[in-house]
Amino acid sequence: MTKRSAMLLAVLGVVLCSGLAASTACAQSDLAAVTDVQIYNRAIHVMAMLLLGFGFLMVFVRGYGLSALTATYLMVATAIPAYFMLKTSGWFGHPAAGIEGLVLTEFAAASLLICAGAVLGRLKMWQYMILAILFLPAYMLNEWILLDGGWGLVASGAFVDTGGSIVIHAFGALFGLGVAISMTTARDRGAAVASDFTSDRFSLLGSMVLWVFWPSFCAALVPAESVPATAMNVIIALCGSTLLTYAATVVLRRGINAADIANATLAGGVAIGSTCDRVSLPVAFLIGAVAGLASTFGFAVVQDRLQKGLRLVDTCGVSNLHGIPGLLGGLAALVFVGGINCGAQGLGIGITIVVALVAGLVAGRVLALSGHRDQPYQDATEFVE
Amino acid sequence: MTKRSAMLLAVLGVVLCSGLAASTACAQSDLAAVTDVQIYNRAIHVMAMLLLGFGFLMVFVRGYGLSALTATYLMVATAIPAYFMLKTSGWFGHPAAGIEGLVLTEFAAASLLICAGAVLGRLKMWQYMILAILFLPAYMLNEWILLDGGWGLVASGAFVDTGGSIVIHAFGALFGLGVAISMTTARDRGAAVASDFTSDRFSLLGSMVLWVFWPSFCAALVPAESVPATAMNVIIALCGSTLLTYAATVVLRRGINAADIANATLAGGVAIGSTCDRVSLPVAFLIGAVAGLASTFGFAVVQDRLQKGLRLVDTCGVSNLHGIPGLLGGLAALVFVGGINCGAQGLGIGITIVVALVAGLVAGRVLALSGHRDQPYQDATEFVE
Amino acid sequence: MTKRSAMLLAVLGVVLCSGLAASTACAQSDLAAVTDVQIYNRAIHVMAMLLLGFGFLMVFVRGYGLSALTATYLMVATAIPAYFMLKTSGWFGHPAAGIEGLVLTEFAAASLLICAGAVLGRLKMWQYMILAILFLPAYMLNEWILLDGGWGLVASGAFVDTGGSIVIHAFGALFGLGVAISMTTARDRGAAVASDFTSDRFSLLGSMVLWVFWPSFCAALVPAESVPATAMNVIIALCGSTLLTYAATVVLRRGINAADIANATLAGGVAIGSTCDRVSLPVAFLIGAVAGLASTFGFAVVQDRLQKGLRLVDTCGVSNLHGIPGLLGGLAALVFVGGINCGAQGLGIGITIVVALVAGLVAGRVLALSGHRDQPYQDATEFVE
Fold first, then answer.
1. List of chains touching C (3+ CB pairs within 8 A)
2. Angle made by CA atoms B380, B382, B385, in degrees to the nearest 5
3. How many helices (H) and strands (E) does chain B have?
4. pLDDT 10s digit of each residue in chain A, 385 long?
């Protein structure tokens, strides 16, 4: 072998390898596109939760189903462009665009729908859109403080809340509670919130849509390699809450209550949110089971007392489904996540409670200025033909 | 270092690199398989739109829900094998097989279901299958002319219609209008098309299924890297039509009309089809908003006059949901897509109008030969037990 | 060129190539993560089938819809943790964990829900959970024998049943039949299983959810490159059963029967399971068509005689939807799969029949010990408020 042939061989090696890498192997940019499409798929699952899930869950109010679905449509259609525009601008934390921006937008819309559940049936249709406008800045402020290091209050990255037990669920429920405290009238307190056989079946349809797609909600933004384990934790937590909801409803109600089944079964999904990508399966089951128990207890025992004590009506019982289980989920991180920054976690939870309640109380006052419905819980007052 | 060692090193380089490329990097063929599975996912979303979306949207006709769902099943089950067989044969344009073939097949089935909405409730069950057989060749002819350069009328690749505003929606609606013109009897014109509370809720269920999965419909065949932006445009357009539908129904009807909410909210999805992968978000919102306004105006104001003027009944108002917004979408490409071939775009739209109407009129005549239903809009005439 | 420079070049070659492979090309591990997320997507589709599909299909029983949905929730929530725990332990065959484990878990839950359809409405709510506990070990034993070479009865890998015609559908149906034989009382035989207009529409909703996502059920665990062809086979088989169901119901019933449409349309999905990744499209259509015909014949003609002959009630007619079409699917492999091990296939089918029936009969006896419902098919006996 001559020097020349050695050189040629070496050059050939470089060229061949580069060629191989370029032509037969897929590049990181291809993979990034594929990964974004996978996040897109989960974003579509979350969209199904927003419209079909939350929408139909709220159809349980007898004679108010068309309004509940229309309000869901309008709140989603208001919140998505508004949040996306604000978020990509970068005014509230890092400017998330593309598919990450869409998922964060859907999270905001989910929190808004939770909040609206507290006053469902007592707003005029256009007031749901005003509620969306009043809700979003407060939500974004809280999100920015907890997740983006806003004002330096909570160290960026220290707050553990992957699937939004605190930022999405507890915030939405507490904001809604604030609005309900400000807005509930004596007439509202006298009007029954009732369901019937068909409205209950539609409500269970919404419940099951939420159950099915909840793993995609919690795993929407986790890296691809963590998606299966995160999803499994969410599913097992939902199994835990479903089983305990049944046990609790039978004991506390002396029979099965359809609203408990439609709602508290989902408490495991709410509560596993914070820690869904960080705990083991038995812990996930435990968190779900405790949440299902607490939520059913909330619906069966606490709700009446809370409503009388605070002189409010929480139409969908969001404090029981999203409030208590959400807070439980955020606190569970303190117990089950190794090396957690307890100060940051506790502070973040505290800030959420304060911001949500205060902003909700104020929003309720503002909304009340624009009037009250004469007849709560009736499609007929606004629908024609 | 000897010559031999240099040579060995060089050979080692080649071998190592080839090994690396082969063993640790994924090949383009792997990526192609993964990308096809992603298209498959969107194809399943479109399938949900066909059966659950279009099917339940049509359940709004009181007392005809079982028939509407059965007809949906039968039309889909007829159209899929028929179109797929014809399309893979290559008689109409390029022979699309595999997952691309499935998506194109679903597009054809969607257009058929739109068409059937115009005469829903006035065909005997087996006539829906005849309609499918009459519809598909005309649909494939138009698709071939507009998208595959058939007969050299429209330059291949020049017609802008990614999500099918023209080829799928306008074609289906206009074909259906043609059938309705040919088939509507005096008895049909006297029979009321009415909904009730439960049929409206099922219809809103279908509407929401369509809304949720519409991004996958429009992005079904776009490259992976364009999926997120395309999806976002579709979502924003749907937000635009949803908001304007509400505003328009309240103004035009002096109250909210459930059928407007179930239908016109989707007009943004119809109209953004042509340009979904080519416009910016504000333009997408604008297109959606205009389409929602036009569609609601169609349902609230135009429909009655059109039906009287043309002596037809358009059961689902497909001219308002798919006809006008579809044409708007195709024309929007002329305004918002830079460097568009205006001649080709205009010609394609014109051809679609002519082919769809003429073929629909003929198909209606043929169908009428096989008889008319005695009692329109009633499950009871065909269902037993 | 000196020796040194040749050496340097060669080293450069190695370094460059390694760098290229590591930095711009995606590794196999990335691809594996992406592929797992794709399986996850199909697993979510299957979850939609479990809750929304099977759940709502069973809502057809008038006045028992809340119970049917609650029972679905409870059986899924019981089966998933129980099966997953047992399966990952490795006691029954290879220890499947991760996303493969989730899919196998869902398959078990599907089989359980099929089984429960045979006795739907005649168990107290907590008895559905007992049924789950009694069902799973028998299911896992059969799965282990047929698919994992358990006891060396069926050669590992020889039994052809990709989408579970035998292991999932026939097993569930036959186990359910066994339970029904053991448990059906004289009072049960006297109580009518009736549907109404709204319960039928909900049932068709469940049916369509199953139809839409069935391709993901059968393709859940096939390699990425086989997913599109497998899915297409499933879709074409479902088209075949849908068309033949309509033809058969009209002929056999002298009119359309809503339950036939909701159920027998799906028989193609059941029967194509065994061979979904191994046959051509025409064969898939044929298998689906025959299954649809047989299933409709079962509902319209066989069911009454079977129930009287065996003195049982099969509430949902699972023998007609999952039993006969499942067995047909397993036998179709003998005809259409080249080089199949006929002995193993036949033996596997035989074992399934024996294990399912015997275990079901025993499970029914055990369940009967814990009592019978006084009033079958009524929500009111267990639901309050």
1. A, B
2. 65
3. 17, 0
4. 466 666 666 666 655 555 555 456 677 888 999 999 999 999 999 999 999 999 999 999 999 999 999 999 999 999 999 999 998 887 777 788 799 999 999 999 999 999 999 999 999 999 999 999 999 999 999 999 999 999 999 999 999 999 999 999 999 999 999 999 999 999 999 999 999 999 999 999 999 999 999 999 999 999 999 999 999 999 999 999 999 999 999 999 999 999 999 999 999 999 999 999 999 999 999 999 999 999 999 999 999 999 999 999 999 999 999 999 999 999 999 999 999 999 999 999 999 999 999 999 999 999 999 999 989 999 999 999 7
Interface probe for C, chosen from A28, A212, A303 (most Cβ of C below 10 Å), is A212
| The amino acid at B147 | L
Instruction: Give the C-alpha separation, B267 to B279, whole Å.
Output: 17
Q: What is the pTM of this model?
A: 0.95
- Chain B, 221 to 240: residues with Cβ < 8 Å from chain A are 223-225, 227-229, 231-232, 235-236, 238-240
The domain A39-381: what is its CATH number?
1.10.3430.10
- Determine how many CB atoms are found less than 10 A away from the CB of residue B347: 18
Contact check, Cβ <8 Å, A256/C73: no
Instruction: Compare all CA atoms of chain B with the CA of A38 and give the residue at the minimum distance.
Output: B38
DSSP3 helix / strand / coil % (chain A, rounded to 5): 75, 0, 20
Give the Cβ contact number of residue C354 at 10 Å. Answer: 12
Which of A13, A47, A102 is closest, CB to CB, to B10?
A: A13
- Residue contact A10–B13, C-beta within 8 A: yes
B101: nearest CA partner in chain C: C232
| CATH placement of domain B31-381 | 1.10.3430.10
Which single residue is written with the structure tokens 């304007």? B244
* AA identity, residue B20: L
Nearest chain C CA: its distance from A304 CA (Å)? 15
**C31-373 domain in CATH 3.50.40.10?**
no
Domain chopping of chain B, boundaries: 31-381
Which residues 267-286 of C have a C-beta within 8 angstroms of A? none
B partners (3+ CB pairs within 8 A) are: A, C
- Chains in contact with chain A (at least 3 beta-carbon pairs closer than 8 A): B, C
